[in-house]
Write a structure and sequence with these properties.
There is one protein chain. The chain is of the alpha/beta class and 197 residues long. The protein folds into two domains: 96 residues, Resolvase, N-terminal catalytic domain (Rossmann fold), CATH 3.40.50.1390; 77 residues, Cyclin A, domain 1. It contains eight helices and five strands. It has a five-stranded mixed sheet, sandwiched between helices. The chain is elongated.
Length: 197
Amino acid sequence: MKIGYARVSTQDQKLELQTDALSHYGCDQLYKEKKSGKSKDRPELEKMISQLRAGDTVVVWKLDRLGRSLRDLIDLVSEFQERGVDFVSLQDGINTATATATGRFTFNIFASLAEFEREIIRERTNAGLAAAKARGRRGGRPKGLSPAATEKARTAKVLFDAGNRSVGEIAKILGIGRATCYRYIDGITSMEKPAGA
C-alpha cells in the first residue's frame, strides 16, 4: 500500500500542493499534519508509523516534510527499512521501492549515517570513560546491569551531558523506557564520582 504523509508548519499554510501530488502518485491513504517541523508532537506521523506493514511504501512530497532534522530523518528511514517499508520523496528523486542500485544506495546511505552516529557516540563514551579514569573516578559496571545495558547506560550519560537531547529522545534512540534512561544516567553519574567523595 502507498501511504502519503503531508505536513505544513502553520495553520495558515495549505496542504493541497502536497496532497494533490501524493494522490496523483497513487497513495491509497493520506496522513495530514499541521505542525511545525520542530514540534516533537506529531500525532499523524505517529499514527501512520504505528499502522505500517511490510511491503508498504511511505511517500512524501519533500524530505523536509518528514523529518525535523537529519537525525530525525535517519531514524525514520532506518525504521522503515527495518520494517520492510519502502520510502519515496517525490521532489528529491528518492525511491527505495524500485529494486535498483539507486534505491539500495539510498537506504545504504541512511544506514551508514545511522552507523556513523553510533560510532561517534561510542567513541565519545570511551573518551569520557578514559577522562574520568584519569581524574580518579571509579569505572566498571553498575551493579545489576549486563554488559549491553552498561553500554546503553554510558551512551545515555554521554548524550545527556551533551545537552542537545531530552531524556525522552535519548530513551527512544536507545530503545529503552524513560524511567530506565533516568536510572541509567543516575547509575553512571554515581559511578563516576571520585573515590571517597
